[in-house]
Automatic annotation (TrEMBL), chain A:
Its main location: membrane. The chain crosses the membrane at residues 30-49, 92-109, 121-139, 145-163, 184-206, 218-241, 253-271, 283-304, 311-329, 335-357, 378-396, 416-439, 460-479, 515-533, 617-637. GO terms for cellular component: endomembrane system; membrane. It is a multi-pass membrane protein. The lineage of its organism: Bacteria, Pseudomonadati, Bacteroidota, Sphingobacteriia, Sphingobacteriales. This is NADH-quinone oxidoreductase subunit L.
From TrEMBL, chain B:
It catalyses: a quinone + NADH + 5 H(+)(in) = a quinol + NAD(+) + 4 H(+)(out). The keyword Cell inner membrane does not apply. It holds the Pfam family Oxidored_q2. Its EC number is 7.1.1.-. Belongs to the complex I subunit 4L family. It is a multi-pass membrane protein. The chain crosses the membrane at residues 16-34, 46-63, 69-93. NDH-1 shuttles electrons from NADH, via FMN and iron-sulfur (Fe-S) centers, to quinones in the respiratory chain. The immediate electron acceptor for the enzyme in this species is believed to be ubiquinone. Couples the redox reaction to proton translocation (for every two electrons transferred, four hydrogen ions are translocated across the cytoplasmic membrane), and thus conserves the redox energy in a proton gradient. NDH-1 shuttles electrons from NADH, via FMN and iron-sulfur (Fe-S) centers, to quinones in the respiratory chain. The immediate electron acceptor for the enzyme in this species is believed to be a menaquinone. Couples the redox reaction to proton translocation (for every two electrons transferred, four hydrogen ions are translocated across the cytoplasmic membrane), and thus conserves the redox energy in a proton gradient. It comes from Sphingobacterium hungaricum. This is NADH-quinone oxidoreductase subunit K. One of its GO terms (cellular component) is NADH dehydrogenase complex. GO terms for molecular function: NADH dehydrogenase (quinone) (non-electrogenic) activity; quinone binding. It is found in: Cell membrane; Membrane. NDH-1 is composed of 14 different subunits. Subunits NuoA, H, J, K, L, M, N constitute the membrane sector of the complex.
Amino acid sequence: MIELIWLIPLIPLLGFVVNGLGRNYLPKKLIAIIGCGAVLTSFIISIALFSEVYQDRLAGGDGQIFKNYFDWFTVGNLNVSFSFLIDPLSSIMLLIVTGIGFLIHLYSVSYMSHDDGFGKFFAYLNLFIFFMLLLVLGSNYLIMFIGWEGVGLCSYLLIGFWYKNGSFASAAKKAFVMNRIGDLGFLLAVFFILDTFGSLEFSTVFSQATGMTSGDSTLLLITILLFIGASGKSAQIPLFTWLPDAMAGPTPVSALIHAATMVTAGIYMIARSNILFTLSPITMQLIAVIGIATALVAAFIAITQNDIKKVLAYSTVSQLGYMFLGLGVGAFTGAFFHVITHAFFKALLFLGAGSVIHAMSNEQDMRNMGGLKKALPITYVTMLIGTIAIAGIPPLSGFFSKDEILAHAFFANPVLWGLGLLAAFFTAFYMFRLLYLTFFGKFRGTEAQQSHLHESPWQMTVPLIILAILAIGGGLLNVPEALHGNHWLASFLQPVFADSQAIATPFHLSHETEYILMAVSALAAIAMAIFAYRKYVSNNEIPKADGEETGALYNLSYKKLYIDELYDKVIVQPLNAASRFLYKVVDKSLIDGLVNGIGSFFVFSGKGIRQLQSGYVTFYIFMMVLGVIAIMLYGLLYS
Amino acid sequence: MGTIVEQIQGIPLNHYLIFCSVIFAIGVIGVLIRRNVIIIMMSIELMLNSVNLLLAAFSAYHGDASGQVFVFFIMALAAAEVAVGLAIVIMVYRNTKSIDIDSLNKLRW
């Protein structure tokens, strides 16, 4: 199987090439088979690879497979090789990307079946999978960076998939520009790493870093820049506003790129570079603070949104904030655990939302839904499971991963835990609000929509069911000791985080404390579920229409804390003004004036001097005589 | 030869200088103010010959024959110049039906 590693990214790339070139000629069935088959093949190889890594771990090895394919380039002392690194971390990530990727491909076959850009869509999806696999597999920062840029590109292409709609196209642009800001940070970090360690290979960099002192200023700079890169890709404050807008893309794209895989690339990168971060405590604190702030802000906004996908988008931002909180307090395993479980239940929720939108003839406003429970039974049950999982009600997966992060946060600083708990309150509330508004009560849509209501075909429900099973059972991966679990994920990932664990203060909470923390967060989630039930089901409350008078706090949340407006005022408009200034004053007046001035100077002086060329021979001779006299006078007077 | 040299030296050199300058100036003014091409060429001859006279005078005063040799060269040159010049004048006349120098004003801005 080790010989086949190179096939994992190559097959989706081939799928992209075939589907991309044949998008207008191949029949839809063939396109679907190529698109899904490519990812499925990668998934099967990934499973085999994972079992290999797992066997090695069981046998006591560190589960690392390093595969060097060729030297990419050598400049001076710098040698960058094109090589792949499989270790416990990347093998799990491979499974997520290809496994969930395959389910979403399958789902898209039906979801996109009426779309003219069917072939293009699958080509883009396969290209995305290729770049994501490159990002995950790369054994040095440069290969990772290629994947990093590539997924950004695919994200741009897929958000703007329906590019004829102007606002969708500008959402794509916004995502791309915001990602570029982060990417610049990552790129600078890569340069600093090169300058400091003389290599970009993970193994070299990390083994050298292990010898450095904690709080080293170079490391601080590198980690801050890496974090800027991660916050762009993983939608953290202040670069998070692109993710909710990214919902302009087709729903499977939101599920795959903007929930399960690409947005977790930042967390993967930080978990990969964990030793650098552990050695710079200031960055860790910054990550924890930004993470919890993002989790709170996004959850607060999600409470009042009415667009079903917008709620899920802000929920994703909020959950990503949780993951960063986990990274910031040193719970690398916990953060990665949450990446896994979040990939399950958020992909499930997005696909469920897609199923609802599909059934409702592209209606996304929850105020026009309601009572869909009977019409969409499978979607309802699976979304209910997803909701319970994300709200953190035991024993579903979200409870375990969220709790591990919260426990570590409590150990690091109880204030962080308190804020995290507050965000958990919000999370449970807005998720159950979504569920009740969509599936309970009376149908509030139009007649035409009601007659058209139908459960989705098997290509859409099968992925939902599989993801629902994963969302239920995902928690078993890492059951904490307090619940008599064996921390399987933690011990599997142990070699990846071993160096960091040797440095960091060992995590320790008494079992009683852990029980209390678990009970508090589980009760909080259940309480909010009941509260939301009373508000939206028993009292039949429907969110107010756009023009209606609302409370100040509600308005603040509904208007997304005016962050887009703030960015517009503080960054976009001054930039536009500066551009106008440069265009009108500097370019038009100054530079054009200078160039035109030189031109007109010669035109005018030529006009003056050409008067001498009168054409009268007498005049020429006269001038000649004058010249001769002048020369003679000069000779007489100055010789 | 001796007698001619003595005769030339009988007149003070200054007189030659002033005389030649006057003829030269008449030539220059003629070129400048006249518009008839033939007259202009005659004026040019006047200038050339004033120089010739001066060269001969200097030659005699210095007792050096090379000045006179120059005079012969200049005369030959002047003959050639007149031949070419008159040919040009004829062509000008054929083309413009005039020998007014100001009719040749096509080469201008």
